[in-house]
Every structure is written in structure tokens, then in C-alpha cells.
């Protein structure tokens, strides 16, 4: 994996190097002659090509410019997340944009999934403790996310996922009326 400093150096060789090299070649054109111009231009092109191939063949870290993080589009998301999480422990993850199911007037032919119960007609679902100190239950409402629920009850998202045997992908797709155990 390339270090961030080496990555910046290679990017400079690709984008800035040829321009500065061409300026220097033009300044010294009368001293180096036509053959020197061809050799110098070829050398600049070779250096930029080697830098580009080095970047293309390497696992890259995200680039940080102030508070802005530029993630390489060609690296796997899993590798990027592993690299970013330790660097930004206080930055909340970006919200996921997943479509929420909407109520339709047409009856559906498929039965409701067994893992998520149908919404109940209760006016305002709230958390109800099962016992003093025991786990609580919460019915998901419209607009709820795991982050909102975790903050409301002062628990971590991971704790809610574990208590309900959910994967992170399932946690991103909560259904209105779904009942969650809050540890």
C-alpha cells in the first residue's frame, strides 16, 4: 500500500512534472538543441507514465485535504472503510440513501416477510421495559434509523445489531412497525 505522501508525490509527477519540465526544456532549448528536446520530452513522458502505472497498480489510501476526504474510485469499499474508520473516530458515517417502502393502494400477491411483523395500529409506539434492568422493545417509526434509535436510548448501533441478530445491511433497511430489542 502506498503512503499518502508517496501518493501525493506521484500525483505531482503526473500533473505538475510535465508542465514544469516543458517550461524548463523551452528555457534551455538553445543549449540542449533538438536532440536534447526530444530526449527531455521523452523522459518527462516516461516519468509521468511510470508514476501513473505505479498508482494504478497499488492499493491506495484515501487522500485528505483539510476536512475533505477523497476516496479513490477504483479501490474496494471494504478497504477504504478499514482505512478511514481509525483516522476519523469522531466523524459520524454518512447516512445511507436507501428507498423506504411506500404504501400502495394495490394489494400485493406476495406474503409479508416473516422476519418483520406488519405495522400495528397503536397510535404512538414507544419503548417499554420488560423488566427493571432488562432489555427494552422499540417499534420502528417512519423516519427512524439505527443511529437515531441508538442515540435516543444511549446505546451503540453495534449493540442494537447484536441484540437483534441483524447485519449492518439489514440495519440500514429497517421497516416501519419492525420491533427491535434495545439492550
Could you explain how this protein is built, in words?
Helix 2 packs antiparallel against helix 3. The chain is mainly α and 183 residues long. About 9% of the residues have low confidence. It contains 7 helices and 5 strands, in the order H-H-H-E-E-H-E-E-H-H-H-E. It starts with a helix and ends with a strand. 6% of the residues are buried.
- Alpha-carbon distance between the two ends: 39 Å
Q: List segments where confidence is low: pLDDT < 50 over at least 5 consecutive residues.
A: 74-89
Sheet having the most strands: 3 strands, antiparallel
- CATH class descriptor name of the domain at 128-182: Alpha Beta
What is the CATH architecture assignment of the domain at 128-182? Roll
Q: Order of helices and strands, N to C? A: HHHEEHEEHHHE
CATH superfamily of the domain at 128-182: LysM domain
Please tell me the overall pLDDT. 74
The helix-and-strand class reads mainly alpha
Instruction: Report the strand count.
Output: 5
Roughly what percent helix? 40-55%
What value does the Rg take, in angstroms?
28 Å
Domain LysM: 136-182
Region (Disordered): 90-139
Biased composition (Low complexity): 99-113
Pfam family, one: LysM
Amino acid at each position: 500500500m502506498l503512503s499518502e505522501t508517496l501518493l501525493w508525490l506521484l500525483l505531482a509527477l503526473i500533473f505538475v512534472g510535465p508542465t514544469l519540465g516543458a517550461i524548463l526544456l523551452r528555457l534551455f532549448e538553445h543549449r540542449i538543441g533538438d536532440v536534447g528536446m526530444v530526449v527531455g520530452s521523452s523522459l518527462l513522458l516516461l516519468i509521468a507514465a511510470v508514476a501513473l502505472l505505479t498508482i494504478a497498480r497499488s492499493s491506495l489510501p484515501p487522500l485528505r485535504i483539510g476536512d475533505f476526504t477523497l476516496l479513490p474510485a477504483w479501490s474496494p469499499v471494504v478497504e477504504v472503510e478499514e482505512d478511514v474508520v481509525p483516522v476519523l473516530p469522531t466523524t459520524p458515517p454518512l447516512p445511507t440513501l436507501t428507498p423506504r417502502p411506500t404504501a400502495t393502494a394495490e394489494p400485493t400477491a406476495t406474503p409479508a416477510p416473516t422476519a418483520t411483523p406488519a405495522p400495528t395500529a397503536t397510535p404512538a409506539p414507544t419503548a417499554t421495559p420488560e423488566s427493571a434492568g432488562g432489555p427494552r422493545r422499540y417499534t420502528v417509526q417512519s423516519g427512524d434509523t439505527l443511529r437515531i434509535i441508538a442515540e435516543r436510548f444511549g446505546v451503540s448501533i453495534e449493540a442494537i445489531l447484536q441484540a437483534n441478530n441483524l447485519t449492518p445491511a439489514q440495519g440500514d433497511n429497517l421497516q416501519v412497525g419492525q420491533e427491535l430489542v434495545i439492550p
